[in-house]
Amino acid sequence: MKPLKRYQYERYAVLCNLAYPRVFKQTKYGFDPNGQRIIKNQFGKTMIRVLWSKESSEVVVVIKGSHSISDWLLNFAMWTRSCKHLGLNYRIHAGFFHLLHQESVPSRNEHQLGQSVLQVLEQTLVPLVAQGKRVSITGHSSGGAIGCVFADYFEKKYPKSIKRIVTFGQPAIGTLGFKHRYTLGHKTYRICCDLDVVTYMPPVPLLYWHVGKLLWLYNGRIYENTPSIVRFSRSFISWIIRPFSYHLMSKYIRNKDFFDDR
Q1: What domains are defined for the chain?
Q2: Residues of the chain whose pLDDT is less than 70?
C-alpha cells in the first residue's frame, strides 16, 4: 500500500472542509471553470461535488458528512441492509444505505426525477472515466462511509477506475462480511483525529467494522493502524492528566524567549 503523502492529505482535507459552504469556487483550487458538478440530496441540498480539470488525470469526488437533523437521525438506524443488488456481497449500516439510495433532486437537465444519489454520481463519472481519468473519493464522517461503498461498487463495474479513497472522521460502515469482501482496502486511507468519538460509532461492538489503513493524528504525530482500544485508552488518559502536564518544567522552558528582550 502506497503511503499517503502530506500534500495529498492536505489537499483532500481542504476540499472536504470547503464542501460545506454553499458557494464553492473550484477555479481557486486548480479545477476548470466548467469542472464542477453538484449532486443534491432528497431535500435539494448539496451533498456531493465532482471536480476535475482537463490537465489532470484525476477526478475528485467530495462527499459531505451529516449536515442536517434528518442526516443525524439516520445514525440511529443501526440495523443492516444488503448491497447484493449492487453486486456487493455484504451488508452495511441502514443509514448509509439510505444516503446512497435516496432520491437526488435534479440539478442539471440531464438528471432525471427519481434517480438516486448513487445513480446520478455514476452517471456523472462515467464520461470522465471514458476520457481516461481516474477517480479519487474523499468524504467527512458519513460522507466517507458512503464514499467507500460507492467506490467498491464503481470499481467492480468499471475496473481500475478508482485511484484512492481518503476519509476523515469516518464511522464504521458494515458487518464482518463487509470487512472481508471490501476490495479497495489497499487504496483506502482513514484519517482519525485524537479522540473523535464518531470513529467509534455505531456503538455496537463486533457488528460494524472499519476498512483500509488508519492514520491517527495524535499529539503532533501520525500513527498507523492503531487498534481502537489503544486509541481510546491513550486519548482518555491524556485527557485526564492534561491539567497536570502544565506543571512540567518543559512548559515553562518553552516560554523562556518571553524574557530575552527584557
Answers
A1: 6-227 (3.40.50.1820)
A2: 242-262
